[in-house]
Amino acid sequence: MDIFEKIACDPRMERARAARESGLYPYFVPLDGTEGTEVTVEGRSVIMIGSNNYLGLTTHPNVREAAKRAIDEYGTSVTGSRYLNGTLRLHRELEERLAAFVRKEAALVFSTGMQANLGAMSALVGPEDYVVLDKENHASVVDGVRLGLGTMKRFRHNDMKHLDRVLAGIPDEAGKLVVVDGVFSMSGDIAPLHEIVALCEKYGARLYVDDAHSLGVLGGGRGTAIHFDLNDKVDLIMGTFSKSFASIGGFVAGDADVIDYIQHHARSLIFSASLPAPNVMAVMAALEIMENEPEYVERLWENGNYMLKSLQELGFNVGSTQTPIVPIIIGYDEPTFLTWKLLFERGLYTNPVVTPAVPPGQSLLRTSYMATHTREQLDRALDILATTGRQLGLIPG
Length: 397
Fold this sequence. Notes:
- The protein has 397 residues and is α/β, with parallel strands linked by helices.
- The protein has helices spanning 6-9, 11-22, 61-74, 89-101, 113-124, 139-148, 160-168, 193-203, 224-227, 256-265, 267-270, 277-292, 295-314, 333-345, 375-391, and strands at 38-41, 44-48, 106-110, 130-134, 151-155, 176-181, 206-210, 236-240, 250-254, 325-331, 348-349, 351-353, 363-368.
- It folds into 2 domains: 10-48 and 294-391, Aspartate Aminotransferase, domain 1 (Alpha-Beta Complex); 61-292, Type I PLP-dependent aspartate aminotransferase-like (Major domain) (Aspartate Aminotransferase, domain 2), CATH 3.40.640.10.
- It has a 7-stranded mixed β-sheet, sandwiched between helices.
- α5 packs parallel to α6.
């Protein structure tokens, strides 16, 4: 069989074709302008409530200036891997600052957040090891475990009784790693770290927290472990730069010997070009703002709490979110696409999330808020959401 024959009959592509034909296809929308609180699409301004730019730092003048300065000093690319000719003094400086920020001994910077998870998981997990994942963990964690050739076990989302049973079923002599997101990117809820730590100690498992959506959000911006005052109980912390840090890239932080081991075994690090200097300098500028201007995190929570309370009062189903990520649960795919389309046409950008990214019957619009949203922008967004929700019967009329 020709390897391309499956394209014509792949049901996922059929869904995409049907959505395009109906005018409800919501993905790969080209944006003009910035990743700020408003973006331009085909000449019209749209309020952005679908970004991971939680602190709004992509448009901060200090961040932009740092990136420009790095281009003048270092050029636009490193053109080599960290392992060979691609480690700049800037990379080492950033790693030291990140380790101090999350209060770990050492950190290792990767070119993307996905590469950080792929590299750390595949380096640490061998054929005799078990990795236990929350069912809502990010895809990069799942793929990293697959690359590591270990045995993957899943437990129901934030279900500690199920996690207990899964860990109890793993041989005592096996290596065990529990991996959770600190903040779950679709539901907006937080991993119950106290209970997870207790179970890891009970069964002799190590704990890895993916803080992609937690850094800049929880713990004064320093992440989930510090939010719960459990930093010494979390073995590895992973973070990305494409959200609160206003750049691209990722890192893993932990004990120095563990980070050194990952550095020498992570294929996604060794066989990828390293993070360019402008991206590194942008992260350091964002980090400095996070360290010295806590009001950004405070404003993020003010805006997130305002929208959560307002959406609940309107009657939207927002699930169990605990953060400025606020899902609007609609139920099924087609109504979700229709709601997205109407909101988009009325000047509001949201993210439709449908099966298999969420369980059947749980399709949703993912909304998320920034420290830099103005109250006027949020009120305009609420007016559009209320009008559309009533029109489609999502909330009481």
